[in-house]
Amino acid sequence: MTDDAYINYDEIKDEKDDNEHDDTSDEKSGDISDYGKVDTKNDRESLRCLTIVGQIEGHYFLSDAQKTTKYEHIIPLIFDAEENEEVEGLLILINTMGGDVEAGLAIAELIAGMTKPTASVVLGGGHSIGVPLAVAAQRSFIVPSATMTLHPVRLNGMIIGVPQTYRYLERMQKRIIGFITSHSKISEETFRSLIMKTDELANDVGSIIDGREAVEIGLIDQIGSLAEALSWLRGKIQENRKNKCSDS
Known about the structure:
The protein is about 45% helix and about 20% strand.
């Protein structure tokens, strides 16, 4: 065999490994930019992080000028987190102004239905339908500077001023309040009093509470940020591993 025909298989293998690494990096970058999702794995545990930011988009497309969280993206990622054996826990980072009620509740119900450890952290704001999303996790955290807006259900666009419309709104309100009170320590009476306050918001009804107030009234479990949420998740993951070893 001549020198020209010599094949360096080590170089080919190195080039293939580099290409595979680049593909993995591109895929990871795409997950972050497109879905706000990243999977991390180290010697201790494997976690998935989801971000819920901007406005939660429902059945209608919102303006390109708005940052949105699309429920058709988030729902499959939650399903995959539950079924993927490599994912041991889910961290949800929340900074949302609210959005579509049906879409927000759908995401919240899925998070609440997970068997793997889940933790949420409210950063900046967890407003409106962001409240059920925050309390849906098994453990909820909020930073002291974050705020949460609590208000009654609203409808956009033209509505018909008939009793049926108001009964529909009341039923929807009951669904939201029922979810929040069943996944937190706040009482229905306290929550209703906060969403119906008339002396706090200009030209509106409701309340704005900060992180410490949210914990004091039992809406959020504890003050904390990334480190506290990760510490709690690691503790639950270790607990689950011990239980599996005991069962086997």
